[in-house]
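Notes taken during the Thursday session

The instructor put the following on the board and asked us to keep it in front of us for the whole hour. The protein is ATP synthase subunit F. We were told not to look anything up and to reason only from what is written here. First, the residues (102 in total):
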Amino acid sequence: MKMYLISDNIDTLTGMRLAGVDGVVVHERNELRGAIENAMNDKTVGIILLTEKFGREFPDLLDEIKLERTMPLLIEIPDRHGTGRKKDFITSYVNEAIGLKL
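Then, after some discussion, the predicted structure tokens were revealed:
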């Protein structure tokens, strides 16, 4: 199985191509949906990497796809601008999940 990147910028795509990951750059919702569908129809793709910007801009689209399909796995990654999460997001996540303050 291979990985496939759907990015909102050429810099992230270039970096991933250096690591051997193919992909595409898209900007609009309909382009994103088409790129995801194309990647899902490719039986050799096991993981679709998406830059975090898509998760912030189109969460309903990504949630819909995640609920409908189990393969390939959709994973959001930080882009060249870094992560959009707070510094202590892991601690906050654990606190919410188990109800204990660390």
